[in-house]
Amino acid sequence: MVMACRVVNKRRHMGLQQLSSFAETGRTFLGPLKSSKFIIDEECHESVLISSTVRLLESLDLTSAVGQLLNEAVQAQNNTYRTGISTLLFLVGAWSSAVEECLHLGVPISIIVSVMSEGLNFCSEEVVSLHVPVHNIFDCMDSTKTFSQLETFSVSLCPFLQVPSDTDLIEEEHALKDVASQTLTISNLSGRPLKSSELFKPQTKVEADKNTSRTLKNSLLADTCCRQSILIHSRHFNRTDNTEEVSKPDGFQEHVTATHKTYRCNDLVELAVGLSHGDHSSMKLVEEAVQLQYQNACVQQGNCTKPFMFDISRIFTCCLPGLPETSSCVCPGYITVVSVSNNPVIKELQNQPVRIVLIEGDLTENYRHLGFNKSANIKTVLDSMQLQEDSSEELWANHVLQVLIQFKVNLVLVQGNVSERLIEKCINSKRLVIGSVNGSVMQAFAEAAGAVQVAYITQVNEDCVGNGVCVTFWRSSPLDVVDRNNRIAILLKTEGINLVTAVLTNPVTAQMQTKEDRFWTCAYRLYYALKEEKVFLGGGAVEFLCLSCLQILAEQSLKKENHACSGWLHNTSSWLASSLAIYRPTVLKFLANGWQKYLSTLLYNTANYSSEFEASTYIQHHLQNATDSGFPSSYILNEYSKLNSRIFNSDISNKLEQIPRVYDVVTPKIEAWRRALDLVLLVLQTDSEIIAGHGHTQINSQELTDFLFL
After folding, report:
1. What count of Cα atoms within 13 Å lies in the side-chain half-sphere of residue 217?
2. Mean pLDDT of 419-446
3. Residue 503: pLDDT above 60?
């Protein structure tokens, strides 16, 4: 990959510098308006267009120890959640720089680890106030509301970023409203105070702000929401004992209230639009797939009384490059591509129910299941000239064909590879064999068609054969959907099968991978939202709340100093306690700077600010107002009540309930934060090449620098 190099200063922490360098390459992928990159192979000079962090890291040289750790963290996030990867990578870079600054100021490593971990834990608890309950989505489905009705709005209730109606049709000159104030309006809509009476101002201020917010009562949906604990886990390293013993300061003890009012979301279309983050075309397909699963579940049950769970393992994609994007759709059943040579077979089978056999492994002459031990010291001797003329594979293929004829099987799905010779024989006998089929597809056909999966064709008997499968072309004119690899799309389905396929098309082959990645990102966002039954109010509000809380916490720590730290630590030395009191405000400040950079980059990537400095100044203005008020949540509600401000367009200011909100998934976002910080602290503690101080000034400058090629 062609990439600029970065100078690495050997007198600074090299591991952290490498993390910052890697993270710098993906900053344009942050936010809904992603800038694509062309990756060029220096050897073969081929190029590919990418717009995701995962695809970017696949093209970088990650052979170093730090690179492998970064790749492991990114892959873990991607394999589990399929979202939050860009956030993870950016925060790795931002917090690596923050830790470097702390080291430069002489902050002990143990203090950095302890305070940063404490700060992130505090943020994770505070953002619970931004949870939006997601309940009874399928009990309140409105068949009259469509996805397109909501996506036409270009302004949301609470985004830092203005979500476009379609990322492919964004104009550079689209106006960004006063969205920082707008985001502030949602940072604590639950009404739960951020925490302590010592941290904030007197209660009379809260009451005054609550009175101001009553004007919005009719436009808010209320629900009771009890505080839930946050799942804390990471696969990178265990925190030190010092961190575990750090508790919240006395100034942050939680107030206990009977009930908390908050937003709620009970509409699937609204939830899907809020989680689309501007990619409405992909999320629309996901929403349609969920609708199909729900309808199929209702048909199978005879009613919809049982709770419905979105099963993402039964959603599949079929990519058809070269076709217009308008051909993208969602269909019940299993859509896949086969060679054009199967065209006569499809025509023969499409008007009749066929019998099906499912093979778990490969369908080849040499395939043996896992655990099979080949007998040793056995030599096969051919006695017949006829056997010598026919290869062993030919004999095997003839035997397989005889088995299929015996049980009147016309369709074979194979989870592994298939012998090319067998495929040819099956085509001549009007039988269709499809290889590399996903295990969930096999299971779905086994359930719906009554088939039993077998490892070898010799195990097939009447009880293993399924019935009633329909084989047809995806489109009535199959030649219209032949891709560039000379393959055609076919549809396999049977009554009651729980399978949905999203057909993804794009006239530009280089963009096909990006389109599929975007679809799965949207699918997993909606999946985790429905699974957890809660989402965050999004658009940057969560990050702004973290920034506000850390800012106030740092200022409060600076004022309290030694008096404050006496209540936080137990069984620690006086040196550690005094060091913590001295350095804690500094570390919290640099941790907060990571959120500041995150939000600044989000705004800058919208192309509405000439520089990140300008975007940062804009955020700092509202941050100062929020912290000066003493009640960030009250400041938020005051800003929200200013309907005549630049936050909303005048033509929709009276239609608050119709403006789609922006949502974020909860656990994937929190876990992206944790993985990012865990990785930074892991590199900090394990890298042995830490050079601090300003000594050895006579060292040759060439020996102090090196180049890191990406």
Report:
1. 5
2. 95
3. yes
Q: CB–CB of 200/630 below 8 Å? A: yes
The pLDDT of residue 548 is: 87
* Closest residue by Cα to residue 506 from 240, 634, 261, 317: 317
How does DSSP classify residue 230? P
Domains of the chain: 10-134+537-566+577-648+658-691 (1.10.560.10), 312-368+392-533 (3.50.7.10)
> Would you state the pLDDT for residue 153?
47
- The whole-number average pLDDT for the span 604-618 is 83
- CA distances in angstroms from 194 to 39, 546, 590, 602, listed in the order given: 45, 11, 21, 25
Instruction: Please list, in sequence order, all residues whose beta carbon lies within 8 angstroms of the beta carbon of residue 245, skipping any fewer than 6 positions away.
Output: 569, 570, 571, 572
Contact 664, 543 (CB under 8 A): no
Please give the model's pTM, rounded to 2 decimal places. 0.78
Reduced to 3 states, what is the DSSP secondary structure of residue 320? Answer: strand
If you average pLDDT over every residue of the chain, what do you get?
A: 75
Instruction: Tell me the C-alpha distance between 335 and 348, whole Å.
Output: 18
146 pLDDT band, cuts 50/70/90, is low
Burial (CB count <10 Å: 0-12, 13-18, 19+), residue 233: exposed
Predicted local distance difference test score (pLDDT) of residue 381: 53
CA-wise closest residue to 482 among 350, 343, 351, 345: 343
Give the whole-angstrom CA distance, residue 623 versus residue 181.
10
| Residue 580 confidence (pLDDT) | 80
Q: How many CA atoms lie within 13 A of 167 on its CB side?
A: 22
- End-to-end CA separation in angstroms for the chain: 8
d(CA 540, CA 32): 11
As a whole number of angstroms, the distance between CA 262 and CA 135 comes to: 13
* DSSP three-state, residue 638: helix
CB 644 within 8 A of CB 565: no
Location of structure tokens 């390293």: 237
- Is residue 588 classed as helix, strand or coil in its secondary structure? helix
Residue 515 host element (H or E): helix 512-532
The label of the residue with tokens 């299929």 reads 404
Q: Cα–Cα distance between 54 and 37 in angstroms, integer? A: 13
Dump strand ranges (E) for 145-265.
none
The two structure tokens encoding residue 312: 């993402």
Whether residue 664 has pLDDT greater than 90: yes
Cα within 13 Å of Cα(29), Cβ side = 26
Could you give phi then psi for residue 534, rounded to 5 degrees?
Answer: -165, 155
Q: What are phi and psi of 471, to 5 degrees?
A: -115, 125
